[in-house]
Amino acid sequence: MLTSHHRTCHLCEANCGVIITAEGRNILSIKGDPENPLSRGHVCPKSQALADLENDPDRLRTPVKRVGDDWLPISWDTAYAEIAARMAAIRRAGGEAGLYLGNPTAHNYSISPQVPALKKAIGARSAFSASTVDQIPHQLVQLLMFGHNALFPIPDIDRTQHMVIIGGNPLASNGSVWTVPDVKKRIAALQARGGRLTVIDPRRTETALVADAHHFIRPGSDPALLVALLLALDEAGLVNPGRLGAMLDGWDSVWEALRTFEIPALAAACGIDAAVIHGLAAEIGAGDPAVVYGRIGVSTAAFGTLNQWLIVLINIATGNLDRVGGAMFSDPAVDIVGQTGSGSQGRFRSRVSGHPELLGEFPAVAMAEEIATPGPGRITALFTIAGNPVLSVPDGGALDAALDTLELMVSIDMYVTATSAHADYILPPCGPLEKDHYPLFLAPIAVRNFAKYSPPVFERTPGTKSDWEIVAELARAIAAATGDTLPAIVPPRDTLDRMLKNSPRGLSLADIEAHPHGLDLGALEPRLPERLRTPDKHIACAPEALIADLTGRFADWLAEAPGDGLVLIGRRRVRNNNSWLANSHRLAKGPARCTLMIAPADAEARGIADGMDVTITSAAGRVTIAAEISDAMMPGVVSLPHGFGHDRPGIKLSVAAQRPGVSHNDLTERGRIDPLSGNAALVGTPVLVAPASQAVAAE
Ligand code: SF4
Asked: What is the distance in A from the centroid of ligand 1 to the CA of 15?
């Protein structure tokens, strides 16, 4: 019998509505849902991977236990009992446990309410997560300025007249920290109404190709551009916060700090002509709705927090924060901001390097040293949930080695990946279409207020469990073994219903389920000062730590002569999402995507021909991959995509293994971080690139 299911694609932040047609459990088609109010029928090629994930023969179907180099299928009860006994023994011996949450957990409403119980049961002081690989600077700035880490300003692309994207490539990502399905059409609509898109990136990206203007920028130099833009607005008399003026604390202090810099030096540092900067300032300060948005390239940088702060300041200075067509705040069906704490900072420090805790987390870059460094408090047991930090965290080689020293490692994962290959136990969740979905964390960052609940498409295969059940049951098994007690398990649907009813809109889950295409809750509207969570409902424009970072660390950086070697940046492709979808046979097809993009002059200077194998060497490691000579690259900058490197020992991903590529994070360095947030500084890793034949000859 043919069945049709209205579902949300959960494979990226865009949250497209899809219609899945199936005959029994056989998926016949996955198409865009034209009646979905957010995505309006759009889907990208990744949507087809929903079927690949569901049917993948490499996906684990039962818990497995490592026995030598083999994996022995075991029952859930055995897995829980053995893990609980081993964890209890480790706790009795004074061992410390760690927890790593991968990026997919942010796309999974049901798992987050269960994580605190697991954290408590294993006695973890703090967690590590993918947030400190690319996102936490946004949250720190929001905590410091708006009073809550989850108050994300959302670019209102549908009503702006000038969008400036720095270090973001939404045509490949479909939006990041910005739920914006069908962004290409939205850009075309912006241009059709006479608006402009400006892209600033060291690579002429897919988004740059459809932009009205693109400017190369020296990787890692973004504060120079952003400060110069603010000064250019000031010089032109275009600083006009409008109605926000009455909400701004510390505005004068900001300008006092900014005016210690000069545009010519800033322009030279970032590699963008002063005339271009003045011109861009004139455009975004002209009074029409405009918005500046910065993403991976500016967040994963040594000045990540400074960058996000300066971007908010530009949006304030041009009167575009909380303005239609500017950077706006949502009014989602589930108001996370109103139902969670604002976020913690600096309550305690990591054992080895003394990183301050932020939002209950230590930097992911600290995980390897916390495991490998002997002494009291060393992490000897690690639990990972839907994460592959060996490939996604800087210096993956160091983490790879550290994981082998653990006394116990448990991975909740569908696959044997570069990370879970080290585990003692892998507990696989059911197929992605065998569980429900609600965009708890992504609806609040969408370009339009919306809600959509997706029931499971298929009945659960007997003997399988949803990931939230695994986390909840494992936590309680461990707690029982250690003599702790945990509250009874609350089904996620009940939690969701309660969160909906406790939110200002007062909807119930039944209200939302009555709209299978999704419930349109309207366009974003101005929400300040009511939405602010600062005690006085003001925006804290001049947080002490940021002023100090600007006038101290950044000023020192500016005074240094720039290096003249090559630096590495990452890149993202539309046919993957980090390392999630590497084993989808539909997505893996086509030309090789893991190549080192290099500018023609840089290739020529090193005797590199297109397609030639080259070695890339950094302070962290060395990899060999084919070169792709491209004038899309800024001279002096090379680009390697992330999410590859699927040929490490033990990985069981048969499709990915056919073209494994190399891991970008075998080159990035653990020591390069944004010290304010602890976020990894992935951008601008110094590298040497040479033909592979020369490297072999030299050895
Ligand atoms: S854009 Fe994202 S949500 Fe939409 S179909 Fe593609 S992967 Fe799925």
From this structure: 6
Q: Tell me: the pLDDT tens digits for 224-233? A: 999 999 999 9
CB 544 within 8 A of CB 346: no
Asked if omega into 675 is within 30° of 0 (cis), the reply is no
- Of 614, 568, 573, 569, the C-alpha closest to 593 is 573
Token couple for 241: 């916060």
Rounded to the nearest angstrom, the distance between the alpha carbon of 53 and the centre of ligand 1 is 14
Domains of the chain and CATH, by start: 2-55 (3.30.200.210), 64-133+348-521 (3.40.50.740), 146-332+537-547 (3.40.228.10), 561-698 (2.40.40.20)
Closest ligand 1 atom to the C-alpha of 11?
Answer: 7
Q: From CA 371, how far away is CA 377, in angstroms rounded? A: 9
Q: Given ligand 1 and candidates 6, 10, 12, which is best to mutate, with the most ligand atoms within 8 Å of its CB?
A: 12
Which tens digits make up the pLDDT trace of 485-535?
A: 999 999 999 999 999 999 999 999 999 999 999 999 999 999 999 999 999
pLDDT tens per residue across span 268-277 = 999 999 999 9
User: Which atom of ligand 1 lies nearest, measured to the CA of 45?
Assistant: 6
Residues with a CB atom less than 6 Å from ligand 1: 9, 11-12, 14-16, 43-44, 46-47, 174, 181
